[in-house]
Design goal:
The chain contains four helices and five strands. By secondary structure, it is α+β, with helices and mostly antiparallel strands.
């Protein structure tokens, strides 16, 4: 079986527009004021790449952007964070995965790798179990 490599990417503070929007929605729509911060981390599982292709894609597609933090294999979850993992159902079109696979293929001039994506939503603050459940349902 081919090795699966995992990359996590997160927008740095000030560039994290999607996380700021979600934080505002939680305060405004759900009326949950205890959430101090929201972080969104994208996860990419890459399969079908040589070590050289993996490093080339890491340096060119992820690590070169000054507004993005990149983590390989493991993401350091804060102990105080409540986490929701979001992944498309099997068979659904994943635009982010397709785009990443096409970029890697164009970069490496080889076969298109298999790419799966997910999002980790991290919520930090004074959140009750009931509020956490409401956030997950939202």
């Amino acid at each position: 079986m081919e090795e699966v490599r995992r990359i996590f990417s997160e927008k740095k503070t000030g560039y994290d527009v999607e996380a700021a929007k979600l934080h505002k929605e939680i305060r405004d729509y759900l009326k949950i004021d205890g959430v101090e911060s929201v972080r969104i981390v994208n996860s990419y599982d890459l399969q079908g790449l040589s070590e050289e292709e993996y490093l080339q894609s890491l340096e060119t597609l992820w690590a070169r952007f000054p507004d993005t933090l990149v983590y390989e294999e493991e993401f350091p979850l804060p102990k105080e964070a409540r986490v929701v993992a979001v992944e498309l159902q099997s068979g659904q079109y994943d635009q982010r995965a397709d785009g990443a696979a096409r970029c890697i293929q164009a970069l490496t001039h080889s076969e298109r790798p298999k790419v799966r994506t997910a999002k980790l939503l991290l919520f930090v603050g004074e959140i009750t179990d009931e509020e956490y459940q409401r956030i997950k349902e939202y």
